[in-house]
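so my prof wants the structure for this chain in the tokens format not the other one, which i didnt know existed until like an hour ago. anyway here's the sequence
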Amino acid sequence: MLRRFVPALAVVAAFVRPAHAVDPVASFPYLVTGNGFGFQVFDASANAIKQYLEHPYRYLHADPTNPDAEGIIRRNLVYDTYFGVRAGSTGGWLEGMTPNQTGYVDQTNMIRSEVPVGGVDTETFFVAPFGYAGNGMVMLLKVTNTGTSAVPVTAFSIHNFHMGTATNPDSPGADGESISYDGTNATETGPGGGAMVYAPIGGADVSSCGTTQYATVAGGGTLTAQASCSGTDQVNAFQKNLGTLAPGATAWWGVAVLFDGGGDSAGAASAWSTFLAARTPDQLYADVLSEWDSYRTAPPAGLSATETATWRQAEAVLRMAQILEPYVETPRAKNYGMILASLPPGEWHTGWVRDGTYATVALAETGHTQQAKAALNFFLDADAGRYGSYLSNVPYQISVVRYFGDGQEESDYSGQPTRNIEIDGWGLYLWAARQYLDASGDVGWLAETTKKGSTVYDEIKNGIAEQLSTNLESSGIPIADASI
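here's what i got, hopefully its the right format
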């Protein structure tokens, strides 16, 4: 039985020539940023970040009370977060305002939203920067005076995260929250675990927490300093005077929003400070885009501008889909290099073998061989072999369907009468490995040692190829299974 009929990343082509050209209409209001440690989702209809995932994958690990269920779901930590701007006496929160434009900057993972406020133009950027080895998102604000007179500008940011009891991980509670400000950064904790750090880039004039900050700014007021607060549905907000902007002048400001699952807010703040290295918001903006330029490979010759843009955005999506969390034996975190079947939102941001191998080949053939190698190594270092009774009772290395976020095999049982057993991924892995070798010439990889202590070649031969040959029909084709 094929349970996942529609692939997570699908392209549907209609081979019908329209009688009249029709302008494309956006049917999906979400833009995603991620850096291998987490994902944040921007909702254009709200003009705000509406998802901030504690881990980039859907399921953290198996449910200890029901190993055949879909597993423990990662939390969405945010209700919403965004900027506000007051130009002269006009303005307020940008949330709810309709952007003139939204999209990715230069086909990267940097999201941009443009909203005019009074006589100024605001550009908001949200990005999870590669190079910061943690779950973090940068909010950047660029304000340009498009009028003919000088105007004083004040910027605000609000961070409404839900750190409470996570009965529903997709919408955790806001109970028992505590926020404190140390003069530089604000930290928020709660019974859900972990810690959020809100770190102004360029400093803040006022840090205020409690339950009235939204209404104060929305009503035209200014924030009052409040360094600590606790209770239900607490939020933190910052205020920053950007000065009086002359016509045509521009000012920048920003906030880094960081999450540490172990609650080490000091460690997260220190790691962020090291990464930022005293850069200003506009310098950080330029450096994030420069890092993307250094990552890119050349597209095929002869592409049109539209085709090149599509190529480059696909290149960015593939990069965002690969997990970069460090490999840890205990407690199990064997996911480094895993590629997800899709980006959030939705339910398919899970490490499927089939999607992962196709993505691995795409990385190899586009010149991103280091990332392809990491994906191949993930499969060899992760844990599989749980369902040998369905497969001639032989040990095997590649999952029969997909993986939990901790790198343990999952059969996609989903409460159905039988487990989902698919072995097409075994052959797809062999294909992906060969494509990597052809693209990279890295034959020495076969002699490298896996986390299990065997060589890559031996693991491929004894853990994949031999098992595939054992599960063939007399005609020589693989046995019937639930795969495509």
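also thought this was worth mentioning. The helical segments are 213-218, 265-276, 281-295, 305-320, 353-365, 369-381, 424-440, 456-470.
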